[in-house]
């Protein structure tokens, strides 16, 4: 195929090729012979070679520097972690003795010794009552990038060590040793090490660049420049008229081979043009095949898209069905919860805070009246969400059966019956029982005439506010149900004489297990009692709002972890509450 026919075919296929962004190759007149003028310095090979060498050297320096930074960072973290652990282990015995003996002087000696570490920002020794025996605080070191310091070393800042005292298996918690590092000092130490390494690396890079450029210029660049000058004198219109003269002393090396290759290329230029025409024809055929494949693939993708849309519609329908079912289950669970108005006449006030973790939950409460007695119960079943809601339905049915058919006077008896019937309902009394579920519970029986309250608990306490003071009665350390635990023989019943104006609180562990605060710790029973002590003389509705606000403030941005139930009531202040028929 000749050049003229190839050019004509390129023009005919130009529209097809342009569809894919490929420009057709057309014949252009040969360029004029270049002027015989020297190459500018900044465009010369030596300049580009120097720049390329510098860029490569700098690139390698950046990579190695980054690797050194990461290595230094890891090494610094490991050294700090190991050092702090060693320091705390070294003083652990003295700190435990100081906390056990409540010896402030000994505790200060331990703190003063740890304060010799320049990275320490705060050192604190507390006893198991929360009292501070010794405290050392060092002002934070100024740092240009405080957020970076917190990001890189924030997880290394807090260190805590439980202090135990005793012998053998009788070790007991006597306090804590807390040490906080200064992330600013850590960052400044790290940046100083990086700066020194960077300065040394920059100096090595510059020296290496100068040596490489000098060697390459003498061995390669200068002979190559002479070869380029001879190639530049070749006339493009007559490439064979001026063969390239090979550089002296380079006939048998790469530069000599380059000159020979250029001469061969000049003599084969016409053959290259013919091959180009053939390649243009193949490219046009490839473009047409590509167009057909694009159309087929587009149709296939459209079919797949329709299938995905149908699957998404089915998935959305199934999700809506599940959500509707859970919301309906929430209405059923809410309907199972009793009305607090059932205790009217027996209590002056009663408030209930019930917050399921999901739409439905595993917490359940029960209040009811039997003549001049009231039964108030709070239960925390296994799990939350739908499984927990199923457990509350089972427990609700069993508790109603116990109260109406077996008795309602003794809370310990109620717990024992509840344990046995839950095991029977879940087939845990047989070896093949599939369910390993159970619950924690707290039950109060209020005797309005006798001005007494009976309480029994299974892993849940009763908290009492009276005469401006808070105290708690712990329940038995055992749960109800569960396949792997043995049936409970009996629970302990506690009788409390009711002081006029006193308030009683029942709650599940979802209240005390809220994670939050500056150290991301549990809210805990102590903080709960402190909060109730501050608001114990207020109306119960205000107390509930205050407690929930305290929990939300403590939790901050942390999510809730469990269902939460809180019941508070104040018995009637008079002894002549009118009896009513049992409900």
UniProtKB/TrEMBL annotation:
Organismal lineage: Bacteria, Pseudomonadati, Pseudomonadota, Alphaproteobacteria, Rhodospirillales
Which cellular component, as a GO term, is one annotated location? membrane
Xref: InterPro entries: Bact_Sigma-Reg, HAMP_dom, PPM-type-like_dom_sf, PPM-type_phosphatase-like_dom
Q: Which UniProt keywords apply?
A: Hydrolase, Membrane, Transmembrane, Transmembrane helix
Per UniProt, residues of the HAMP domain are: 218-274
Protein name (record): Serine phosphatase RsbU, regulator of sigma subunit
| Gene3D superfamilies (alphabetical) | PPM-type phosphatase domain (3.60.40.10)
Q: What's one GO MF term for it?
A: phosphatase activity
- Transmembrane stretches in the record are 47-67, 194-220
- A Gene Ontology biological process term: signal transduction
């Amino acid at each position: 195929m000749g050049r003229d026919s190839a050019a004509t075919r390129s023009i005919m296929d130009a529209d097809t090729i342009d569809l894919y962004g490929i420009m057709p190759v057309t014949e252009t007149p040969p360029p004029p012979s270049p002027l015989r003028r020297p190459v500018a310095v900044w465009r010369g090979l030596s300049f580009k070679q120097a720049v390329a060498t510098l860029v490569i050297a700098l690139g390698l320096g950046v990579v190695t520097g980054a690797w050194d930074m990461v290595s230094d960072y890891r090494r610094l973290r490991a050294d700090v972690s190991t050092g702090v652990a060693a320091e705390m282990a070294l003083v652990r015995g003295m700190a435990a003795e100081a906390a056990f003996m409540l010896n402030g002087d000994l505790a200060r000696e331990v703190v003063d010794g740890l304060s010799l570490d320049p990275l320490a920002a705060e050192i604190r020794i507390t006893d198991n009552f929360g009292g501070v025996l010794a405290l050392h605080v060092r002002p934070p070191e100024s740092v240009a990038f405080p957020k970076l310091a917190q990001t890189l070393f924030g997880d290394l800042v807090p260190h805590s060590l439980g202090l135990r005292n005793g012998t053998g298996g009788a070790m007991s918690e006597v306090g804590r040793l807390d040490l906080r590092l200064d992330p600013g000092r850590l960052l400044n130490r790290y940046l100083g090490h990086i700066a020194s390494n960077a300065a040394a690396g920059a100096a090595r890079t510059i020296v290496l660049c100068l040596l490489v450029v000098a060697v390459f210029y003498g061995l390669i660049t200068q002979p190559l420049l002479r070869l380029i000058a001879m190639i530049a004198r070749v006339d493009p219109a007559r490439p064979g008229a001026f063969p390239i003269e090979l550089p002296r002393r380079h006939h048998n090396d790469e530069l000599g081979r380059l000159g020979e290759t250029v001469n061969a290329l000049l003599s084969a230029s016409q053959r290259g043009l013919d091959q180009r025409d053939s390649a243009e024809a193949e490219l046009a055929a490839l473009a047409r095949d590509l167009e057909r494949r694009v159309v087929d693939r587009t149709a296939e993708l459209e079919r797949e898209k329709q299938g995905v849309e149908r699957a998404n519609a089915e998935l959305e329908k199934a999700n809506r069905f599940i959500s509707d079912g859970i919301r309906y289950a929430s209405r059923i669970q809410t309907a199972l919860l009793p009305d607090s108005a059932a205790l009217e006449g027996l209590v002056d006030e009663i408030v209930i805070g019930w917050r399921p973790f999901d739409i439905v939950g595993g917490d359940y409460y029960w209040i009811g009246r039997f003549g001049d007695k009231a039964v108030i119960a709070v239960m925390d079943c296994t799990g939350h969400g739908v499984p927990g809601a199923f457990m509350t339905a089972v427990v609700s049915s069993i508790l109603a059966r116990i109260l109406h058919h077996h008795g309602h006077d003794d809370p310990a008896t109620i717990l024992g019956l509840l344990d046995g019937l839950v095991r029977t309902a879940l087939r845990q009394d047989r070896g093949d029982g599939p369910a390993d579920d159970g619950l924690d519970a707290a039950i109060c029986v209020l005797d309005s005439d006798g001005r007494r309250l009976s309480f029994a608990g299974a892993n849940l306490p009763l908290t009492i506010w009276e005469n401006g003071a808070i105290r708690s009665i712990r329940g038995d350390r055992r749960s109800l149900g569960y396949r792997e635990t043995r049936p409970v023989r009996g629970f302990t019943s506690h009788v409390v004489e009711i002081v006029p104006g006193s308030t009683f609180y029942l709650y599940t562990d979802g209240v005390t297990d809220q994670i939050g605060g500056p150290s991301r710790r549990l809210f805990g029973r102590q903080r709960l009692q402190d909060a109730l002590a501050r608001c114990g003389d207020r109306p119960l509705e205000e107390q509930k709002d205050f407690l929930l606000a305290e929990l939300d403030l403590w939790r901050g941005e942390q999510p809730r972890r469990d269902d939460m139930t809180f019941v508070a009531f104040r018995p009637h202040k008079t002894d002549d509450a009118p009896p009513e028929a049992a409900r």
